[in-house]
Give the backbone structure.
Amino acid sequence: MSTYFISDLHLDPQRPASSRAFVDLLGQIHPTDKLYILGDFVEYWLGDDDNEHQQESVFTSIATLNRSGTPVYFVYGNRDFLIRENYLQRFGMELLPDPAVIDLYGQRTLLMHGDLLCTDDSDYQNFRNMVRNPKWQSQFLAKPLQERRSIVTGLRQTSQQAMQKKLEHIMDVNQQTVEDIMRKYNAQRLIHGHTHRPGIHRFEIDKKECERIVLGDWYQDTSILQFNQTGYQLLSLDQMI
Ligand code: MN
């Protein structure tokens, strides 16, 4: 009985290898396991009516896994927050809030996509507030698909240009924000993605041992966090098979 965490797969019909790897991973997961997808599952999502980017076969594989008994949970990232909750449910996924607290083999664990932790990047946080507003989202989703596509293409270009100018540390998490949120939710463990900087960070909060586990992306590799009763490991798909 294992619990798996993945994030930042950035699945894109242009890069089918990642989608194949994901389906291979699902083949390794048993009905008694659990799967958490912590955001940026797809490269981008213009709306549930965007047939070009829907990756129906990938979603169908998740639905099949869930029907076999495996619970599948989903936290939005900054690329896929426009997938509506009923679409996720149709494919066997339960949407969780960001942050979400779970009991992971007896330990309170905080799950996040990770973008909320990057508080040094105030431009990004302002942008996030705008696009996470339900009113902005319903206005955006009401636009014709072609118009949504050109808006998102423009936003992506602007964001790539902005990222090139930003210092490395601006796009990483802010340690004070990490500690504040872990203290607020009384959790000694935090699991997130987003930064594409996989690693395990250990530190103390109020004299208590804490850890932050960061998932890597699936652009080149396949980053998977596998937990069970006895411990955990960050591994890649070929280490599992
Ligand atoms: Mn992200």
